[in-house]
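[agent] plan:
  1. take the single chain provided in the ticket
  2. run structure prediction with default settings
  3. attach structure tokens to the ticket
  4. add a short note for the reviewer (M.T.)
[agent] executing step 1
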Amino acid sequence: MISDEEIIKAFRKSENEGYRKLIDSYGNYVYTVITDKVRGLAAEQDKEECAADVFIETVRECKKHDFTMDSLKAVITAVAKRKATDLFRKLYGRKQHNEYFDELNDEPTDYETPEHSAVSRSEKEMLWNEVLSLGKPDSDILILQFFHSKTAAEISKILKMTTASVNKRSQRAREKLKKTLMQKEVQFNG
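[agent] step 2 finished; step 3 output follows
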């Protein structure tokens, strides 16, 4: 393993060389920290992107302190744990949203044809993805309102917001969603 002093000297000489030594020295460690946190949720690409973010953020922190920290491992550990936690939250939230979508009833009624069912499923998926693209907390508000029949007061307690904020965000999110859906319809029909 390359010592912290060697890595710091490499950064002072050449940033590329510094990154190379930092990754050679701590790459497996960072990957292990990330994998432990997001096991079963993340694809390899997600973990690799997270690891790259860890190294970039670590170097940014080191530069802030002119590479005068006592231990690179301490810095990289803190950054890796924070980034892995952020990735976990992002992926876990996506998983929960997908589970909500799976709960939607896709059983065809007596009068639906298989073709109609497929179109209906496709439309639901598109709508679901547009709701998710609104970002938090707007997507959470709409999901709680329309898929779980929660009132603004109930949502405000769940999301720790005021009822007025929930109502205002819901109104804006619905307007944004309507505008997006209308644009998609024009593109589809046009």
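[agent] step 4 note for reviewer: The helical segments are 4-13, 15-38, 44-64, 72-103, 114-133, 138-146, 152-159, 163-189.
[agent] ticket updated
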